[in-house]
Structures are given as structure tokens and as C-alpha cells.
Amino acid sequence: MKLLLSLIGCLTFLSLPSIWAQSCFPEGLELKSQEEIDNFGSLYPTCRTIEGNLRIESDENTPIVNLRGLNQLEAVGGNLMILLNDSLRDLSGLEHIRTIGDELLISSNSSLTSIESLSGLEAVEDLVIVRNMILPSIAAFGNIQTLNNTLYIEGNPSSDSSAGFP
User: Fold this and answer.
1) H or E element: which one contains 75?
2) 3 state DSSP class of 67
3) How confident is the model at residue 21 (pLDDT cuts 50, 70, 90)?
4) Which residue, 84, 96, 80, 88, is CA-closest to 28?
5) How many other CB atoms are there within 10 angstroms of residue 105's CB atom?
6) What is the value of pTM for the model shown?
7) Residue 126: beta bridge partners?
8) Best exposed site among 23, 55, 103, 140 by fewest CB in 10 Å?
9) Residue 48 phi, psi dihedral angles, 5° rounding
10) Higher-confidence residue: 146 or 9?
11) Can you spell out the DSSP letters for 99-135?
12) Helix residue ranges per DSSP H, the chain
């Protein structure tokens, strides 16, 4: 009997990580403020994959200055859109994202100076980087193994062209 209980306990313990790490937001998620980003980990501690789209776009009154509250994310099943964030300087907090099911769009982030935090990205359908006026380099994507459709880079006057792509 003790052996059976020990075996059940071990199996339960071994299965806990798969219970803890879950997908969430099949309809997608839109984050519009720094407070929403900062609270994400405490509100959704088991969420590792956003099943739908993830849109990060600050509204006029609540600027987004960092994405560190999203550091538990490993995948986005739909689009990852980072746009119109005038106070966002880098993408710190997205270091663990490995796959994006559809499009990665980085657009019109006027203070963005680094996208290096996405250097672990391995798979994405479409990659679009447009109108990030002071972004000096787009050389963060050397680990991409799968880019199935579109690579579109335009209107990033301070950036190197396509350095960093395999």
C-alpha cells in the first residue's frame, strides 16, 4: 500500500509542471498599459503560450516603457504585434519566446533602440519591421529556422538592412 501511494505521489509530482505551464487567451490579448504588462505574471502565473494574438500598443495616457512582465511567455499562437509604443526602448521581457504562429509585427515604436530580446526566436510565419525610426539594428534573428512567408523591412532609416538573417 505504501509503495502504491508513493508511486501515485511521484507520478502526480512529475505531472505538475505540465499542469502549471498552460496556454491561455485563445481569443487573444491586448495590452495597453505598463500596469497591464507588469501585472501579467501575477494574474496569469501559469500562462506560457498565448493561443491567439498578442497586441502590445500603449494608449495615449499610459505609456509602455518595458515588457519585463511578460518574461514567462514562450510562444504566441497567432500574431505578436508591438506597435505605437513611443516610450518603449527595447523588448526586454520577450527573451523566452521561441515561436510565433503567424506574424511578428514591430511597427512605429519611435524610441525603440533594440530588438535583441527576440534573438531566441526560432519560428515565425511572417516578419514585418516597419517605421521604427531610431532602431539601429535588426540583427536579432539569427536563430530563426522557419520563416514561411514574408520578410518585410521598411522605413527603419537607422537600421542595417537584413543583417542577422540566416
Assistant:
1) strand 75-76
2) coil
3) low
4) 80
5) 20
6) 0.86
7) 103
8) 23
9) -115, -25
10) 146
11) EEEEEEEEE--TT--B-GGGTT--EEEEEEEE--TT-
12) 2-20, 34-43
